[in-house]
Design a protein that fits this description.
140 residues, mainly beta, Jelly Rolls, 1 helix, 8 strands
Length: 140
Amino acid sequence: MNNLVESIEFNGIKYAEVIWANVSVQKTVFFSPAESSFQFGLLAHEAGFVEPPHYHKWVPREIKDLQQMFVVQRGVVVVELYSDEGELLQEVTLKQGDAIVLIHGVHAIRVEEDMQCISVKQGPFLGDVNDKVFVEMKKQ
């Protein structure tokens, strides 16, 4: 995509994208494809910029996937990414200011230092019973 975001892909499937805390842009840039059900990017404007009051049109959208984004506010968290077959593909260690978008596949988190993250995903939330599927992973 570009050098601002780290794309994590295996066998042609994008599992996640990471925006590291030290990434800086001069102008607003979105990283997700326009057709993605989850839009993310970095907003950047010079001092004095004013965006007129507005709202976003209500348009029915059909969402079949559920992507999730973590933005680490404090602490250290490791995000484990697994293949559809249950094999550990990669671990990503996130610190304050880092962000990850989970796009595909099974994931788990392991907290290394007390953490707080902003978590964003599509709604509505249907409750843990209807929202999460816990998966038995292969032993490493």
